[in-house]
Sequence to fold (313 residues):
Amino acid sequence: MEIYLPIAGMSINFFLILGIGGVVGFLSGLFGVGGGFLLTPLMMMIGIPPAVAAASDSNQIVAAASSGAFAHWRLGNVDFKMGLVILAGGIFGGTIGVQLVKVLRAAGNFEFVMKVVYVLMLGLVGGAMFMESLRTILRSRKQDPGAEGTTVSEHKLGKLFAKMPLKMNFHRSGLHTSAIFPFSIGTIVGIMAALLGVGGGFIMVPAMIYIIGMPTIAAIGTDLFQIVLTSANVTLQQAMVNKTVDLLLALILLFGSTIGAQFGAIAGKRLKGEQIRILLAIIVLALTVKLFLDLVITPSDLVSLAPAKGGGH
Fold:
């Protein structure tokens, strides 16, 4: 069933969009990520303009993360104090990011910059998560499965941030640490939410676990909580400043992702922390390869590989 997307300016299959939303919602609940790091490239692959894909994805992330955050709140997995500190940074960063999008679109460089940043960022994060998770699985099979969380003092960067001022107690996470790093990482994620249409979970969750020292399940629940409000702020500003939010596209994605997120949260309860991390790392690395190929393979290469395929723009 074909539908017309007014802001994107194109027709597309309704069930294709719905299915993509459901899959990404499932991943949101399972991994504690907004899903935008998968959804934005997927939207671009099916022909959605990059700026519209990023802005509309931020919109649907609000719903997907809301559903997942509510599920994790019921399970007691949300550190609200930590989440509010991160959110403050996210709102600040989101405002900066929206203005960056405006400048890049005016210069005609938005799509190229988006893909380059994705490849570099996802490659580094995915590689680090994969190696760390693999080492954990190989070395720690006999450890208490409920003790995957570590203290800040066990991390090199954690030692640095532990010496910073503005220390706060985060009771749900069992931490006493500076609020500077959570605010800073929140700012970075806010910029990415505007520039890339992502919730930032693929950076936020590893940072919470490996640097701040939060338990995996608390990091996931808290990340989803901050994603909701950070993405809502970015969506509002994108609609007002850049006018790139396609509400119809976002609503279809929203419907599918809300349902999928509930199943993802349930599935996450059945997996150990290191299993969740290594699965997320594999998905991130696979997406990195796809985006890298998009950068190095030119349209003429694609035509030569598939000469019978038409419909070019």
About this structure: The two ends are 22 Å apart (CA to CA). The CA atoms of residues 91 and 233 lie 7 Å apart.
